[in-house]
Amino acid sequence: MATLVTRLDDPQALKAAAAAAAAGATLSVLALSDSSTWKKLLADPSCPEAARDIFLVLPNGTALGDPNAIARYLTGPALLLEGFDFANESWLEWEESHLRPAVYGGNAAALESAVQHLSAALSGSNQQFLGGSKLGLSDIAVFATLRPLADSSTLAPLQPYLQRVAALPALAEASQQLQLGSFDASNGDCSSSSFLADAAARQAALPKLPIPGQRNILITSALPYVNNVPHLGNIIGCVLSADVYARFCRSRGYNVVYVCGTDEYGTATETKALEEGLSCQQICDKYHAIHKSIYEWFDIGFDKFGRTPTRAQTEIGQSIFQTLQDRGCLVEQSMEQLFSEPLGKFLADRFVTGTCPKCKYDDARGDQCDSCGQLLNPTELINPKCALTGSTPVVRQTKHIFLDLPSLSPDLQAYIDRTSALGGWSSNCVQVTKAWMEQGLKVRCITRDLKWGTPVPRDGYENKVFYVWFDAPIGYISITANYCSDWQAWWKNPEDVELVQFMGKDNVPFHTVIFPATLLGTQEPWTMMKSISVTEYLNYEDGKFSKSRGVGVFGNDAKDTGIPVEVWRYYLLAVRPETSDSAFQWDDFAMKNNAELNDNLGNFINRTLKFCYARFEKTVPGEGAGGAGTEAVRSLGEKLGPLVEQYIAALEALRMKDALKAAMLVSKAGNLFFQETEIWVAYKQDREAASTYISACAGIVLLLAALLQPFMPSFTAKLLQQLGVQQPPLLTDDLVKAAASPATLLPAGHPIGAAEPTPLFRKITEDEVAELRARFAGNQADRTAAAATAAASGSSSAVSGAKSGKGGGKSAPAAATNAKSGPAGGGPAAAAAAASADGTATQAASGKEKQNKAKAAGSGGGKGGGGKGGAKEPERPADISRLNLRVGLITKAWRHPDAESLYVEEVDVGEAAPRTVVSGLVKFIPEAEMQQRRVVLVCNLKPANMRGIQSQAMVLAATAPDGSKVELVEPPAGAAIGERLSVEGFDCSQPDEQLNPKKKVWEAVQPDLATNELRVACYRGLPLLTSAGPATVSSVAGGSIK
């Protein structure tokens, strides 16, 4: 016997019960709330959502989870024809794909169309049911879905049919078994709590569209580049600020859509892919998942978090380009661009670095200077270098498409003048935009010589793509298009939709000049940006956050600290750099948590709820009889009302910090009221006054839950649970008025949560601050390497009496394999690693002292040191720095006399005598081509006997992914014989004298040696460099080097 597990009032369960009754099958029905046996099944993440509310457990223990599939299984030939019943199956598919979405989605137009479709099908002379004169499974499916709308006038044409189905014995039996009651439209509503819950959930999940007559707000935050992990400055600069505003707008009752996503096209992605040895798609998939995970942890409530490489992006971007071209807003020009002769290609902006011509910063990128923010062309850099090879590029001519900004300037200036005043643009935004316009706009290139991007739809441009800053803002539109098919209702509806955008100040000109000019040039009715919120820079301690350099606290770091997300959100918003740069400071972070969250907000809430719990039987008592205490509460309300009004006004104007301050002043007012009224004394002397006082405090707690929900949604969720409230009140004008009477915000007798209230925050100690500061000192690469070194040292010291080369030495190379820098030394990063390994703040704070002691111990080695050889140095990470890679010249090569597959080579590596090397290259490289070849060798391997000949080095070669080809790794012609190769970020000046085979260093390093798509020999995506440029191979891309 099968068992149906369901909510007893679920109309979809009627399909299974009626099908079983019609077939004469016995069906056991078990309420979902009682299905403890199946909790493990429901908890399984792989369990489909549709199967969590209704499923059929079969006798063999398997389960079916779709209502129609369950009904098919139970009915057999009773309601379906033998073989394939085309008519019934067609109707069942239509019920699932058309009727059910219309009913549960509340789509009146779709429902009316469905009713007309059914009426037409039932209009025949002998058409009592959908299949003719006989009841079919499709009739049961349609009836079950329409049953909750029995009293709807829309169903009037179908009432005779529905009554016929309802009168059948199988339906009556099933309705009784599921406790659904009889079907009678005249008796009114036949809906159920299950139907209402499912309908609400489906409607909430449907894409929102603008509603005429309401305030419709489209919110975007700058699309984060997908090539790195976002740091706290990125998070507060766009997604977190926009999230606060979106949550506020939803709470005000506005119709809001908040979209964002990862910006995945362009040079930055290609660079990262090369660095990590992955394809562009792989790198995008990897970092999109990282971004999404971080934003989910930060409680960012997007309506859609998408990506730019989509069909919609291509279609919309190319359509805008074509329209601009048709309207004469694009021009083709030849331009000078830097060309890499070693790579044989034009270099995209970010593949060029050099000195900024404006501020003389010596590590400016080809598109923008990170120091002064100046937008650049690569040819403007002083002493430009190719970021891939280190060589000096040359200037060559190439053709590109330019946006004719000068011709668009009049319309653009009119838009800026009108909208900056109407939308209340911030002063920093106005200043940046004004500076651009006053300098006079120039034509701006919108194409690039790249592969990873939106293709340019123009003959002769097959190998070019749109420039990322033409393409990326279009991502807002395409992500909206992937959220709802009718994207133009949001983006081509300036009369009904407000566009509000959030970003850092470095993105301003693209959103106030270039993107608006692009849209204006099409002469189409685009929804143009009305309001813009721009942040200055959030610095880190005494320096700057930097994604590229790994400096600061990153999104995943915040999660790993164990400090709750609400604390991070609060602090970032409290120091939000709205009008000037601000800084993340660990001391300030702890102070704001301790004084503002714990001592002010948390203390007030905990005192209030504990008083209700202990003194008023876990309830909010309500105002006392006879008006006791009302005067004090009235005075309190006079303070609260204006604060809430200030809060609303500040958020409407995008002033997050002012709104947060107003909310915290509400908490401060509550704390002061609790203290001044001495509720604990009033409770003993005037119980009625105490009731009024504590009810006012509880009302403030509810008010704080609403005010702080946009800023700290996780805090509000925890608070509401303790307060015994399901949802915070909406931030309506009614709530603003009600704030003046806080004692009535919660009804008298309201029960608070069942459990005794507990503190919502805790203090961060000075020791924790010291540990955190040390832990996040330096950069990510240093921290990773230092942690690996500390782990190796800890493992070695844990094994008492361990012999040299054993006792945990393997862990250091293994951990260091993923590091992107050379061996870690001392300094803050090492102290951080030591602190992390010990797990105690005290040890972290004294990390430097420990290092000094270790050095002192080490210096006392030997016989005079008072010990047995002093402290042992930790094993160096097994990375490229330990290999002695040299440029060599094969002066002579011949076949090994005793091995057909081996060559013997005489190689000059700049030493007094040549080295003898044995290589297994006979099958791949003809002997004639081995003569006088420049090569790269590993010169510090332990000499090995190869069939009677000792090999004193190893020639490096790249093997194609399919093994079909092997090619020598060759240094550039200008590299000196004997020159040592290096890799950026690694100290290659002191390799091991000879690699110890037992340490497996070569085996650890080799998997990270490969050629990239440009055929450059790389270690972990970074070129193997000589003074004349990188080592390369002739044709093998993506090949393993060994």
From TrEMBL:
<dbReference type="InterPro" id="IPR014758">
    <property type="entry name" value="Met-tRNA_synth"/>
</dbReference>
<dbReference type="GO" id="GO:0000049">
    <property type="term" value="F:tRNA binding"/>
</dbReference>
<keyword id="KW-0820">tRNA-binding</keyword>
<keyword id="KW-0067">ATP-binding</keyword>
<dbReference type="GO" id="GO:0048608">
    <property type="term" value="P:reproductive structure development"/>
</dbReference>
<dbReference type="InterPro" id="IPR015413">
    <property type="entry name" value="Methionyl/Leucyl_tRNA_Synth"/>
</dbReference>
<dbReference type="InterPro" id="IPR002547">
    <property type="entry name" value="tRNA-bd_dom"/>
</dbReference>
<keyword id="KW-0694">RNA-binding</keyword>
<feature type="compositionally biased region" description="Gly residues">
    <location>
        <begin position="858"/>
        <end position="869"/>
    </location>
</feature>
<dbReference type="InterPro" id="IPR012340">
    <property type="entry name" value="NA-bd_OB-fold"/>
</dbReference>
<dbReference type="GO" id="GO:0009791">
    <property type="term" value="P:post-embryonic development"/>
</dbReference>
<dbReference type="InterPro" id="IPR029038">
    <property type="entry name" value="MetRS_Zn"/>
</dbReference>
<feature type="compositionally biased region" description="Low complexity">
    <location>
        <begin position="790"/>
        <end position="803"/>
    </location>
</feature>
<feature type="domain" description="TRNA-binding">
    <location>
        <begin position="879"/>
        <end position="982"/>
    </location>
</feature>
<dbReference type="GO" id="GO:0005829">
    <property type="term" value="C:cytosol"/>
</dbReference>
<dbReference type="InterPro" id="IPR009080">
    <property type="entry name" value="tRNAsynth_Ia_anticodon-bd"/>
</dbReference>
<dbReference type="GO" id="GO:0017101">
    <property type="term" value="C:aminoacyl-tRNA synthetase multienzyme complex"/>
</dbReference>
<feature type="compositionally biased region" description="Basic and acidic residues">
    <location>
        <begin position="870"/>
        <end position="879"/>
    </location>
</feature>
<keyword id="KW-0030">Aminoacyl-tRNA synthetase</keyword>
<keyword id="KW-0963">Cytoplasm</keyword>
<dbReference type="GO" id="GO:0004825">
    <property type="term" value="F:methionine-tRNA ligase activity"/>
</dbReference>
<dbReference type="InterPro" id="IPR033911">
    <property type="entry name" value="MetRS_core"/>
</dbReference>
<dbReference type="Pfam" id="PF01588">
    <property type="entry name" value="tRNA_bind"/>
</dbReference>
<dbReference type="InterPro" id="IPR036282">
    <property type="entry name" value="Glutathione-S-Trfase_C_sf"/>
</dbReference>
<feature type="compositionally biased region" description="Low complexity">
    <location>
        <begin position="811"/>
        <end position="822"/>
    </location>
</feature>
<dbReference type="GO" id="GO:0006431">
    <property type="term" value="P:methionyl-tRNA aminoacylation"/>
</dbReference>
<dbReference type="InterPro" id="IPR023458">
    <property type="entry name" value="Met-tRNA_ligase_1"/>
</dbReference>
<keyword id="KW-0648">Protein biosynthesis</keyword>
<protein>
    <recommendedName>
        <fullName>methionine--tRNA ligase</fullName>
        <ecNumber>6.1.1.10</ecNumber>
    </recommendedName>
</protein>
<dbReference type="InterPro" id="IPR014729">
    <property type="entry name" value="Rossmann-like_a/b/a_fold"/>
</dbReference>
<dbReference type="InterPro" id="IPR041872">
    <property type="entry name" value="Anticodon_Met"/>
</dbReference>
<keyword id="KW-0436">Ligase</keyword>
<dbReference type="Pfam" id="PF19303">
    <property type="entry name" value="Anticodon_3"/>
</dbReference>
<comment type="similarity">
    <text>Belongs to the class-I aminoacyl-tRNA synthetase family.</text>
</comment>
<feature type="region of interest" description="Disordered">
    <location>
        <begin position="790"/>
        <end position="879"/>
    </location>
</feature>
<dbReference type="GO" id="GO:0005524">
    <property type="term" value="F:ATP binding"/>
</dbReference>
<dbReference type="Pfam" id="PF09334">
    <property type="entry name" value="tRNA-synt_1g"/>
</dbReference>
<keyword id="KW-0547">Nucleotide-binding</keyword>
<feature type="compositionally biased region" description="Low complexity">
    <location>
        <begin position="829"/>
        <end position="846"/>
    </location>
</feature>
<dbReference type="InterPro" id="IPR001412">
    <property type="entry name" value="aa-tRNA-synth_I_CS"/>
</dbReference>
